[in-house]
Amino acid sequence: MTGRLQHIRALHNSRKAQVTDSQRASDDVLMLYSIHVFARSKLQPDLALERGRQAFEGARSIGDRWLECLAAGGVAMTYLSIARADEAGAWLERAATAAMAVPSTPVARRVEIWRGALAASQGDSEAMNTHYLRAAELSGEKNLAGRAEAYSALAIETAKLGARAGDKKLIDRAESAAAETLDVVRPMSGQMPWEALAHTALSVIARLGGDADRAGEEARLALAGIRGEDHLPIFVDVLWGAGLTLISLEEPEAEELRKQIAESLGFI
């Protein structure tokens, strides 16, 4: 899909006599941002960074502050995915500056999600907790998807930090966030990726607590609730938590999961 978008962009730019300069500039920024989004979702950070930067510059040049914010935030999260927190922080500040020019609840919620992810990567559990809970609050009662996204991110990132540090307080916080996620997604139709993240966090928590039966059950629910090709970035977290839980317990799925993890790492 990323390659197709690249070709569409090239074809569109060749229609010089059929569109005005301003329309062509606007359309090109949208195409650049679209390519960035697809590249991020398919774990292609090099292309995501290049097209994200270009979309950011293009949005600035035409005065589209909303798209400028989205592009800068996308570049920040791409840098975060390859463990370059300093660059991510710098781009997140660009996103926040653009967001100030288009004040709205959806923009503020998105910036809080990004800030929570940056704090998580830096091991700052308190800042992470604050930002994700703020994002959930900004989602309100009607935006169930926004709340589920915030709570599930808080659950999985807190579980990671808690598992790494052996911190009971963080583990309890992760369990609470996972339970909140499941409550939010219950009335939603379809297969929600946030539910899989919640079960992943619960599988890790149960394994750390020595409850092998519950750990295995939660891990299976997580793996059954998501397909890797649909949500690759989330699937990586599910393999980290649910996959390794079943492997560590030497469950029947262990050998197949070892192969999946090896293939995923090879792809990345």
Share of β-strand residues: under 5%
What's the N-to-C terminus distance? Answer: 17 Å
| Structure annotation, total helices | 13
The portion of residues assigned to helices is over 70%
In angstroms, what is the radius of gyration? 20 Å
| Element-by-element helix/strand order | HHHHHHHHHHHHH
Q: Would you identify the regions where 5 or more consecutive residues have pLDDT less than 50?
A: none
Shape: globular
Strand tally is: 0
Short structural summary:
With 268 residues, the protein is mostly helical.
Keywords:
mainly alpha, single chain
Structure report:
With 268 residues, the chain is mainly α. 81% of the residues lie in helices and 0% in strands. The chain is globular and about 65 Å long.
